[in-house]
Specification:
Amino acid/polyamine transporter I; 79% helix; mainly alpha
């Protein structure tokens, strides 16, 4: 069983590579620094409630041998159109958010004075070259290595931080206030991308199909689900670790995490080095940078993969007339770089604002995507053995209700 698990390992770690980025390095660390351990239970509850909707991507791909976009088409063409609107409306902002964090780390670590816009374009261009040349196989191998490095360094940092002496300023002690608008807005953004946008369930279904092509046998459903759960539980534990870093090192000191990307990057790396030791600067710096670069890379890989089945389902005649489908994928990649660069040109000065917009957008669209995923995996065309059990069905409806209620709360505080 373990031997087969290692062979199918890939899509779950790609999920982790996409998830362990802004939600962890930025939002989770900020949650700990601002509110101590107050939001840990929210983090765990959110990961628990959201679990079915992410798992359904891997479940559907394994059982039907098609992706979730094709599943949406079975619900109705309107579902694909709705998903396409949500995708196009968010893809440039989400890509820009993870790219800005990556570039900020790069600029801080190597003390670069290149403009944020130019550096972003370079990072995105390098990513495109990697994806075109290496394709899925290279991405698969890179993520396994990167996630391992980050996991190990983060665990070491948290354990070391337990013994760090810290001067608490009584006036700087702050706890989460459920009646404070600013705190509620942060909570919405925090939950919105915890552990990741629900869009990733669609990406996961596509990665699962790509991984299956590289194997000489068809993975069983239980193998695919076990592999996904390893990645999912791992991202949950890492998010908790980042909250702990922020709480143990910064909470109550009076120091606040900056919304400026480069400054924040320095503060993040300082958290590690102050707990592990200054000798670890380059180890931690490279681990953090490669983690964010992997997120940038996986997001850039995912959207063109998603746009292809969207195009295929909405415009089947035009799709069939295209002889070289790989050219269309390259076109989507170029479009992603242009659109993302455009967004960064106007919003790169405030990483915090960009991250908040991206995470909030993901949250308010979550009820729709969650319902679509549930509808697809419980549809009549799904084999009975692959349909979710009663527990997952109940959890799914609780999750949908959770999304609707929090979206209503957000709308109330906003307007």
């Amino acid at each position: 069983m373990l031997k087969k698990l290692f062979r199918v390992m890939g899509p779950g770690l790609l999920y982790a590579g996409a998830a362990v980025g802004v939600s962890h390095l930025v939002q989770s660390t900020r949650a700990g620094a601002m509110f101590n351990f107050d939001l840990v239970w929210v983090l765990l509850l959110t990961n628990f409630i959201k679990y079915p909707f992410f798992e359904y991507g891997a479940r559907y791909a394994a059982a039907s041998e098609t992706n979730l976009v094709d599943g949406y088409r079975r619900v109705g063409k309107w579902a694909v159109m709705l998903f396409s609107v949500l995708t196009v409306g968010s893809m440039f902002i989400l890509q820009a958010a993870v790219t800005v964090v990556t570039v900020s780390l790069l600029a801080h670590i190597f003390d670069l004075e290149i403009s944020m816009l130019a550096l972003s374009f370079i990072v995105l261009s390098v990513s495109v070259v990697i994806l075109i040349i290496g394709k899925y196989s290279l991405l698969d191998k890179l993520i396994k290595f990167i996630i391992l490095i980050l996991t190990f360094s983060t665990i070491v940092a948290v354990v070391a931080a337990l013994d760090i002496p810290k001067t608490i300023d009584p006036e700087a002690i702050r706890h989460f206030d459920w009646m404070k608008g600013a705190d509620i807005f942060f909570l919405i953004a925090f939950v919105g991308w915890m552990p990741a946008p629900i869009d990733i369930s669609v990406w996961s279904s596509l990665w699962s199909l790509e991984k299956a092509k590289s194997l000489d046998y068809k993975p069983k459903l239980k193998e695919v689900l076990l592999e996904f759960r390893v990645g999912y539980i791992g991202t949950t534990l890492l998010a908790t670790a980042f909250v702990a870093l922020g709480a143990l090192i910064m909470w109550g000191t009076g120091e606040e995490l900056s919304s400026n990307g480069t400054t924040f990057s320095g503060q993040l790396i300082h958290m590690y080095t102050s707990s592990i030791g200054s000798w670890s600067y380059w180890v931690i710096s490279i681990a953090a940078l490669t983690t964010m670069f992997s997120t940038t890379l996986t997001v850039l890989d995912a959207y063109p993969r998603v746009l292809n089945p969207i195009f295929q389902n909405l415009f089947p005649h035009q799709w069939n007339s295209i002889e070289n489908k790989s050219l269309l994928t390259k076109f989507w990649l170029v479009l992603m770089v242009i659109g993302t660069t455009f967004i960064i040109a106007f919003a790169a000065s405030s990483m915090g604002f960009m991250v908040t917009i991206a995470t909030t957008l993901s949250f308010v669209t979550a009820p729709i995507l969650a319902w679509l995923n549930y509808k697809v995996v419980t549809d009549d065309h799904m084999p009975d053995y692959a349909k979710p059990n009663l527990f997952l069905k109940i959890l799914s409806w609780l999750g949908i209700a959770f999304f609707v209620v929090f979206t209503a709360i957000y709308t109330y505080w906003q307007f």
